[in-house]
Amino acid sequence: MNPLSQLIEAALFSAARPLTLEELNDLDPDVSLAEVRAAVDQLREHYDFDGHGVEVVELGGGFQILTRPALASALERARVAQRSSRLTAAMLETLAVIAYRQPVGRAEIEDIRGVSGAGVLRTLQERGLIEVVGRSEGMGRPLLYGTTPLFLELLGIADLGNLPRADEFAIALQPPTPTVSPDSDAAAYVEADA
Amino acid sequence: MNPLSQLIEAALFSAARPLTLEELNDLDPDVSLAEVRAAVDQLREHYDFDGHGVEVVELGGGFQILTRPALASALERARVAQRSSRLTAAMLETLAVIAYRQPVGRAEIEDIRGVSGAGVLRTLQERGLIEVVGRSEGMGRPLLYGTTPLFLELLGIADLGNLPRADEFAIALQPPTPTVSPDSDAAAYVEADA
Amino acid sequence: MTAPEAPSLGLGSGNAFVVELEQFTGPLDLLLHLLREEQIEISDIPIARIADQFLRVIHELGLNQAADYLEMASRLVRLKAQMLLPRPGDEEGWEDPRAELVRRLLEYQHIKEIALWMDRMADRRSLRMPRGYLPPPPELPPPPLTLDLLEVLGAVERVIAGILHPVMHSVVARPLNVEAATGRIQALLAERDEISWAEALGPAPSITDVLSTLLALLEMARRGQLVVRQPAPFTPLVIRREPALAAD
Lengths: 194, 194, 248
What we know:
The complex is a heterotrimer, with two copies of chain A and one copy of chain C.
Chain A lengths: L2 H12 L6 H5 L7 H17 L4 E6 L2 E6 L4 H10 L7 H13 L2 E2 H8 L4 H9 L3 E6 L7 E5 L1 H7 L10 H7 L9 H12 L1
Antiparallel strand pairs in A: 1-2, 3-5, 4-5
Helix pairs in contact in A: 1-3, 5-6, 5-7
Chain C lengths: L17 H4 L5 H11 L9 H14 L6 H18 L14 H27 L23 H14 L15 H14 L2 E3 H5 L5 H16 L3 E4 L8 E4 L7
Antiparallel strand pairs in C: 1-3, 2-3
Helix pairs in contact in C: 2-5, 3-4, 7-9
């Protein structure tokens, strides 16, 4: 692949949107638009000729690299395979904290559960059980999560107020505040003195 | 390119994160993990041999397609893609402690850095670079932190085993009690005392 | 790290720049900087000189309000005093009071090196761009998800079991009772000229009892009703009635 095609491939790969020939020309102002056009064609032919899983597609006046439609069903199968029917213990615990403490941010969930994972939140979100419901005003404005209607539907309850022991658990599920037992401390003090 | 490599290429293109071999295996349950591994290698070699603008990189516990480093400045100049912003010195120091001491509690991190405050930990947590991995058995059962796969992605390394050993840096992490030369010190002392 | 090199501090300039505040990630960072500027080995710190410089710099940079810097400042001042104490005759038994600081500085310097390495790695990594366009996930048939209320409640219980103090208890402030402590001490001193610290505390004292007793003693000492003294360093306090009973 020639250097211009290489650059165009990297650009089409990393861009979040289709790129026009003019935009692609910005990559190397020393070449002509015709040369850019030829390099795009060369990239397309290379993908086709070597049987790549992706192809160059012209759409909306620009170019984009997309996966071949023929592979869509296999990609979908993989996505389905990655979902199992039961939630793991970690997922259930995270879901429980979100259900009773919503809206709640990731750091607070981790503080309460004592273990964590971005993966767990992502999976719960992908499975449609939780969703982003806003942002906290706190440092870094973290995302806040809440449960979805699907969650209520699966549990067979009408609304969040019908969660068993809603108030009690909302209070019990708080980030721990380490406290020092006053008595043991005073005892240590006296001992040291005696 | 063979059908499996083609499928893997399409999957890696449509995910903006590293995919594990197991995830890639879901694309075709009829092949073995070793065959998946071989197909990934074939794809990588193809990219290298044909001089593509992208390459297959092993990082963060999986594989990801990324643009080649040499093309970064052209992509930035043409405003196609942006490099991610750098972490602050405080974030890097905190990550350094956590990476090499994990699982590690906040008190130990603060003690080593000589700085107190939950702000940096919270920010790293929100950015998904660290996570709570458990609780210490000690007083107050403080939370223990560890690094995430995203941290490995950030550095571009495959797993924690790829971090340099602590003693490969100029100074050992836990030096033996510093030996003070008695002579030079005694001399200094006499001067100060005089 | 991100900042290439901390600039020379210009100790005489007398200007407190907020910009410079961000040059240091903490007191250890500042201390290392001072040692580097003076080209001093960490293992042999001239404490008196460095302590003075540290105090001057945090004052000039307006860091003398920051707790972490103040704590380091007081540590350095204490070390400076300890270095001036006469050393016991045998060199063998002498423990360098700087040892702990030296250990911390070496450890911190090591962390900084690792952080620098990480910064370089992340910088190099950021030259590789990931895929920018993420196709929206196709509409998949609803996954065969099973979930019931019992599972969720079981998870709640597991989480609560892992929390240190799961039930929210109302925190009642226990006020210090200096009057009661004063009364107890006065009663004891009515019988004897001298009592011990443990006696003044009373049986099974709580932390608030300890604080109440301490405040009562200080107040009574201020009024000249008693004298608190420590016969030798690290020995228990002795509380003595003033004036003594005999002279009453």
